[in-house]
Backbone:
């Protein structure tokens, strides 16, 4: 059974600071997805990465996929209060399969 | 366009009662997923359907849980009898490919 570990579990920083959160898998990812979940809502997909070493940017968010496809990082530059939420990584299996999620990083950006 | 619709949004019941959660997927999507989220265990896949057919129910915790998808626009997750440890947020998601779209969830409390 694949295990996804995310760190840190909780992170609280001031607006304007930079931060990085991590996701590590016990086995090679089929493909890795990052989601953000806000209180009272379901997760929303941010990005999908497939190729080892891949880097994707989404405005102030930079996603890196490890060369061995067993780890990933999410870096946020100049964090804003709107970035507050639960950041989840997931293995999307073969595409149409159910997702295996990590427990997430609870991120709070203080004004 | 309407997203995934779940009802009820909140459910409070007593131990031993039957609970039915409902989901309407996004029109045109051919896969439907049920997940459960708790602080202790995170977000876990319970069961998923492809073209209304159950594909993998290995995540269903016990025989007290059952799910149906009688047509492409409706699915139910039933718990009978319910127990306090079933208290969680239950999410339904639908997809047509790699990206899953989540509903707002049903928060279930079993007293």
Residues:
């Amino acid at each position: 059974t694949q295990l996804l570990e995310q760190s840190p579990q909780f992170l609280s920083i001031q607006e304007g600071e930079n931060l990085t959160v991590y996701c590590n898998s016990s086995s090679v990812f089929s493909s890795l997805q990052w989601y953000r979940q806000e209180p009272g809502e379901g997760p929303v997909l941010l990005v999908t990465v497939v190729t080892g070493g891949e880097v994707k940017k989404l405005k102030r968010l930079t996603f890196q996929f490890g060369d061995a496809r067993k780890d990933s990082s999410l870096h946020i530059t100049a964090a804003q209060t709107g970035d507050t939420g639960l950041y989840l990584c997931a293995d999307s299996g073969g595409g149409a399969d159910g997702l295996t999620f990590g427990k997430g990083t609870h991120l709070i950006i203080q004004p | 366009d309407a997203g995934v619709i779940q009802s009820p949004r909140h459910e409070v019941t007593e131990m031993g009662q039957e609970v039915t959660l409902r989901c309407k997927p996004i029109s045109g999507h051919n896969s439907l997923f049920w997940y459960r989220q708790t602080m202790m265990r995170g977000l876990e896949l319970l069961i998923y359907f492809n073209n209304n057919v159950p594909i993998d129910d290995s995540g269903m915790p016990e025989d007290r849980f059952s799910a149906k998808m009688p047509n492409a626009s409706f699915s139910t997750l039933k718990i009978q009898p319910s127990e306090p440890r079933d208290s969680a947020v239950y999410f339904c998601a639908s997809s047509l490919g790699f990206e899953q779209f989540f509903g707002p969830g049903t928060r279930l409390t079993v007293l």
DSSP finds no helices and eleven strands in chain A. The mean pLDDT of chain A is 94. Chain A touches chain B through 21 residues (CB under 8 Å).
